[in-house]
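Researcher: Going back to the complex we discussed earlier. I've cleaned up the inputs and rechecked each line, so this should be the final set. Can you rerun the prediction on the complete assembly and write out the structure?
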Amino acid sequence: MLFNSLTFVVFFVVVVTAYWSMRSWNARKNFLVVASYIFLRRVESAIRGAALFHDGNGFLAWQTNCQGQGTPFAARVVGWQRLHEPEHARVFQIRELSAAKFSVAARAPRNHLSTTAFGHSSAVGISFYTFHSLSYTLDIYRGVLKPTKSLRDFILAVSFFPQLVAGPIVRAGDFLPQLVRPPALRAGQFLWGLLLMTLGLFEKIVLADTMLSGSADRIFGYAGPLVALDSWLGVMAFAGQIFFDFAGYSTCAIGAALCLGFHLKDNFRFPYAAIGFSDFWRRWHISLSTFLRDYLYIPLGGNQVRPVRAATNLVIVMFLGGLWHGAAWTFVVWGLLHGSYLVVERVIRVLFENRARTNNLATRLLGGFATYAAVCIAWVFFRASDFTIAARMLGGMFGGHPHGDAILTTREMLQIALVTAGMILVHWSLRDSNIETAVMRLPRWIVTAVWAFMACAIILTQGNSNAFIYFQF
Amino acid sequence: MPSSTSNFKRKLRLPRLFFSTPPEIERVHGGPPLEYERPIPEVPSRGIATVVVLMVIAATCAWEFYCRSIGYGPTLNDGEDLWTSARRRVKPDSIVVIGDSRGWFDLDLDELQKGLGKRPVQLAMGGGCAYPVLADLANDENFHGTIICSVVPRLFVAPPGTPPMERAEKAVRRSHTQTPAQRVSQYLAMPLEEHVAFLKQEELTLDDLVKRLPIPNRPYALVSPRIPPYFGTLDRERRARMIEGCAQPGKLQTTIQQIWLPLFTPPPPPTYIPKEEFAKRMGQAIEQRFHDVAAAVQKLRSRGGKIVFVRLPHSGGLKALEDRETPRAAVWDRVIKDTAAPGIYYEDFPELAGFNCPEWSHLSAGDSVEFSKRLIPHLRAALQM
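Model: Rerun complete. Updated structure for the full complex:
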């Protein structure tokens, strides 16, 4: 079920109404479990096997951990879960990729990451589900979380429908405490949740799908050489598309959870205003980057080891982060590129640590521009379905095809330029703030007008929209 | 920003300093509770939300009235979910109409039901290639019914990767992979689309409105040809009927006539492939299509299924263009020869040849009924009914 579908609108209205009309907190939680299962339609089709596997798997770890943390049996169970859940998720992803012609062998160039082609989506979100479940097991194993005594609460924590399909990755330690006491229905919080859902849908339907995706698909799907301007605009369109698509989903999820009285953390914090790559990863897909940091980078030794080892750890983590996105070498290269960026940044920081001029406005803007450009270059590998396309795109971007084709229309170029400029302006304006503060500072009439404008634009787009890119991960 | 959470947390943590037993909230889950609470802006949210709802209702109503005032009316959108709902109605011995929009507009289901004894299922699609649907039915082991296949040569031989093929493939794929949520969305959307005029997925959307902005293009930009505006309605059976505004001479009719010409003109070959190589590849793709169609027909017949190909009326400048670019011998005769299936070419029969298509490509709603009546004896003969 997509957030941008009529089914979800009806589903959400029914769920919210029924949820808040129930008096018993236990009844509400039971209802949310059922609603979450309906949302993912896990009661039918092939994913039933995966769901049962995960629930059983998580339950086994849950029971084991209840018996005693740190026992050899508990360690074996945790180890088994750590090993098998990602593998199972990967098997499903690859099967799904094959089914939708996204597999490495069967990729059609235009289909890769082209959101229009997601017709077969029964096992979507399986990796997010795995992350939710893993965080619970690992936190208990690490001793930072005590096992919950309620299996229902455990299931709800890993299956809560707003964040189930495409994140953010909500750790059990952040969610389980919210299941102890019933939240009160507060009008301000509920309406703020609705505004966030409107904002998320606007980002997804209007900005990502209507303004940017067509140009990005055309550029990456074009089989001939392109001039530098079109190549760069195509990559910038994709950079904007994937941000609005994924951040839009996360914002919807946060808003939907708020309407039900739950608090999810931000998953994006104005990433295109990042200065440097470690800053970028503190702002982009925060729930994944912190997950990788806490459960992979730090256990590997983090930065408390020799510099060479720390650099290797960074590359390993980003390599695995890339692989998580799909069974394709292009994703691996994307991850390795980001790993390399982080290593280079560390070296630069050491070299320029004590230089006063590194903190002035011009240097910061230059750093921000360089970060954005490098991130865009990495997106080429993320979006291209194979290395031939990636090479052709990079060739175009760096002037390799001066007599290439110029296929974008003036309107498309204006759309990309305006949306990208607006996005970067907003990111820089709010890079040290948040949207809540911005709303507090704005005059009321502007907040009202912007909210109404976003709702009208969504209606005008008529749901003529695509699946979320991150559904496949 | 300080919030009520800070005090709340302090209150919760305080007892832990004095009592040995932690509170229930900490005993159950461990760790301090509610580590994170989202800040909620302190704004008069009820007032803002009320004004927003009123503004959105007003803007939506104004847009609906405007769309109706310029000639738009409610109709279903021909998405892949509507197609899938029709595909689901196909029974093993059904009569099925496949092909392009001429099969959609020109064949009246009521008349066909009277003449053929069964109500046909309408699976033709606007701007779609017939082959993916034909292959899907041929591969359906349960199906041994009758297919009436409309042939518009350019669409019929459209190579893989082109819009006519993609449109048909997308619909067929959806029929195999449709989720319950997509099905429910379709059921929810239909009553809305039947009453609201501005709900048109291929026009009147924000995307389409932006595309129509009068911005001059730079040279060599690849601009997709324009798709005709609203000129027909579609019902739940996917029967299309031309609206009166298009059937009568006027601006809409002329506009659509002028849209067909670039749409049916072959696009120039891409710059990155030599012309000869491109022509060779296209030739191979067309040959492959003839081969695939013949194989699908053979497969269908082996189970007792029947098929008849029909060439439906077209007129004016579009007829001249089609006859020049895709002459009868090049596609129609070849399909009939390779498949050894019966074919009805409207020009071969005086009673079918006298119809005029108002916008050059489709019959008006009234003419489609009369045409279908006259077509039935030919269909019965071809299908040996």
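Model: Worth noting: The longest helix of chain B spans residues 275-302.
Researcher: Good, that matches what I expected from the previous run.
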